[in-house]
Amino acid sequence: MGLPSRHATGTKRRFRAATARERFVTRTITLCLVLAACAFAQRDDVANGIAEFQEGHYAAAIDRLRKSPGDSRAKLFLALAQAGLGQCEIAAPPLAEQFEHNADRELKRLAGLALVQCRVAQNRRNDASLALARLHSLYPKDADVLYQAARFHMEGWNDAIYELFRNAPSSFRVNQISAEVFEIQGRYAEAGAEYRKAIGKNPVALGLHFQLGRALLLESHAPENLARAKTEFQAELALNSADSAAAYEIGQILLTQQQPAQAAQQFERAVAQSPEFPEALQALAKCRVGDKRYGEAIALLEKVIQMQPANESAHYSLMLAYRNAGRVPDAAREQAILEKLQRVPEGEFTDFLKKLGEKAPQP
After folding, report:
1. How many other β-carbons are positioned within 10 Å of the β-carbon of residue 107?
2. Phi, psi at residue 259, to the nearest 5°?
3. pLDDT, tens digit (0-9, with 9 covering 90-100), for 228-274
4. Which of 182, 197, 296, 333 has its C-alpha lying 20 to 30 A from 129's C-alpha?
5. Distance (Å, rounded) from C-alpha 70 to C-alpha 78?
6. Residue 292 gets which letter from DSSP?
7. Are 341 and 325 in contact (CB under 8 A)?
């Protein structure tokens, strides 16, 4: 048998090279398909794991999410699922990392919320407080964040109250906190009784006489209660002459008792101690209007409105002061501002309310 010709040899070489290329291409395509299938399977594991988490199946979520250790979402939801099972020692570090570095605002929020709950569960309240403060700065109007803040502080309140009653049951602070609880509940007579017990134990403690006076006013504005409350506010001022709130309350009682000159002195004292006290400024302005000292009243009310632009009663008083001072254009301007503040905003809901007020057509 003779040797193959040069042409035949070249053809065979080209055939073998083509076959090798095809095999390479085939293997490459197969490998790509395998890798793609793995990627899709991984994505399915992450998606299914997140779905399991959202349905509250934390153990199943953990099993699925562990199959995708390189996926950032899998890392987060794995930690969230572990936290859901109370495994905070394992979950807290990745949650802290996600809260610190995750660029997705929603995922960062979820990590922060879970981290706060884990820190509380671990009795690491200082760390929980720091995380909660950061959460609030990032999401100041978020309902979940505000709920967690309320719950955190309420638990702190309960724990502190328990420690107070356990460790210092006979202290005046126990009576004071009991009185404050009664006051929140609207049980003003019982609140007053507890404040009196606290004062009996510590008559020089700041704030107790003021709180008792306020409880008396909340209970009733009967003449005898007004007199008792004034005595308590005066006792507070005797302990702390810089207490502008006590001076203001005395001034209000004196107005009720038809003693405007003495009331003005108390409002002056309150303003001297607290120049940014809008209620005291406004009360003093009304006294100045009563004395026809309109220029002084206007200056006081303009300061109030600068601090509280939406204060309707201040705008009304300023309108009257301008009018009485003969400043008609200024009074008209204040009247326009007041009408704008009092105007019901237009909108779909307003239109709906208007329709409710319309009479139904007669048949």
Report:
1. 17
2. -125, 70
3. 999 999 999 999 999 999 999 999 999 999 999 999 999 999 999 99
4. 182
5. 12
6. T
7. no
